[in-house]
Specification:
By secondary structure, this protein is of the alpha+beta class. The protein is built from two helices and three strands, in the order ααβββ. A three-stranded antiparallel sheet has the order 1-2-3. The longest helix has 56 residues.
């Protein structure tokens, strides 16, 4: 091999090594981003399950309905936020269903690392928790 062949092969090796490192760097960044999204999704699911368990255990003891088998949004919101505060980075909104069937619990999580916004939405009805008197 002469000097020119050595230089060209060195440049090719350096270029391909740099490209490979760039690909590995992008792959590592994507893995970290997907782990962060999974953690956020798990956090939302844990909060949703905690809300469900709290309603099963505490709904009868507290006056959360208006007497006509409907939740009072303000009362339910205050009681749920006190019993199960939303973790940092998670937003919980409770709003009445337009048909009057119950209350929508909407959970959202976003982070500075990820542009994605994760959402969970669940309809909570008094009948599902045995709060309607026949």
């Amino acid at each position: 091999m002469n000097l020119i062949e050595v230089l060209i092969s060195s440049l090719l090796l350096a270029g391909s090594s740099a490209a490979a490192l760039g690909v590995w760097s992008q792959a590592a960044a994507e893995v970290a981003r997907s782990r962060a999204l999974e953690q956020q999704a798990d956090q939302l699911e844990r909060l949703r399950l905690a809300s469900h368990r709290w309603l099963l255990a505490e709904a009868r003891a507290q006056r959360l309905t208006d007497g006509s088998c409907r939740f009072e949004v303000g009362t339910l919101t205050a009681a749920m936020n006190q019993a199960i505060p939303a973790p940092e980075g998670v937003d919980r909104r409770l709003s009445a269903d337009s048909s009057g069937a119950g209350i929508w619990q909407e959970l959202e999580a976003s982070s500075a690392q990820s542009a994605a916004l994760l959402q969970r939405r669940q309809l909570i009805t008094p009948a599902a928790y045995g709060l309607c008197q026949p």
